[in-house]
């Protein structure tokens, strides 16, 4: 799983001083950094997406290959700006070498397919990036091409390396008793499936869920690497999977995904919408945060319905890191389902929200990002990124950019 765990708009899924009990309770409600004033959600810039080719993918498709592919438009005809192409080229350079060593779970490509474009990318001028993509790639529609895009960002929240008044929300490292089991070692039919849990006596059982962890269940098994000031912000940073802690002395500590408790992710935004807790126009990260802070007891119970819990490590180098173990790039990287999209592949999105349109590179995954043509756009860090990602929810069409000749090879059944 990637360093960043899930999408905001599917979370819509999104915490405040006094909401989390037990080990997560702040020491003092007003003595640390106060809850931040939420920037307004960025209002969408409407756009008209290009239409996909008619296609009826199999209802049971579990991979991109099974969903089927058809030719997309010539790349030179797609409305790709020079800036978007240059950002995408930079992102592609970061991960294209690793792509050649990976097995593509989508079944669409082979590692060697990416070698020529990767070699060319090393010295290709950024100002001519669009020509690079038009030379080495062809646009391919996977399944029906109907895309859904949300957004994520790298949050910055108040934190401290040591526990002090106002900083009482523990940031846990991976617990020593958390184990991951590769089921493929026991049966060929279970290849690719893994489960996480712990040993209790002679039995392997599910790991502690969120409410148990926040009540102190892992206090003896998991090192605490830092303390956050606001459990609401920490909950959202968990959903993002990485972020920055703004320290009392003005410094910054970067933290990233180190593990997860193995419990299924539940988007609390959907729960809140289904229960009519959110007013029209409130179903954004900012709106959800406001409701949780206004209803602390109910908010704590709702957050605990998301049994998934994320553990962190301090990041020293470049980041945040995506599912490939490499840095992701704001306005260029997207999270996707690797069963349908090769990790590292370029993608063109044509959506009903202009901000999401353009060329992206699939360098991440997410617990809520599942299925064909499902994407989570990464916007970087800062208030601008937070405002856009918090309300991103776009629909339209996606084309995957694959090495020239891939479509012919797939059509030939090779």
Could you please describe the fold and organization of this structure?
With 414 residues, the protein is of the alpha+beta class. The chain has a 6-stranded mixed barrel with strand order 3-16-13-15-14-17. The protein is globular, with a radius of gyration of 22 Å.
In short:
The chain is α+β, with helices and mostly antiparallel strands and 414 residues long.
Largest sheet: 6 strands, mixed, barrel
Q: For the record, what is the CATH homologous superfamily label?
A: RlpA-like domain
Query: What percent of residues adopt helix (DSSP H or I)?
Result: 10-25%
What is the CATH fold-level name?
Barwin-like endoglucanases
Shape: globular
| Structural class estimated from helices and strands | alpha+beta
Mean pLDDT: 88
Q: Which residues sit in consecutive blocks of at least 5 with pLDDT less than 50?
A: 1-32
The strands making up the biggest β-sheet line up spatially as 3-16-13-15-14-17
Number of domains: 1
Distance between the termini: 30 Å
The CATH architecture is: Beta Barrel
CATH class: Mainly Beta
Annotation, overall tally of beta strands: 17
As a percent range, the share of strand residues is 15-25%
| SSE string, helices as H and strands as E | HHEHHHEEEEEEEHEHEEHHHEEEEEHEH
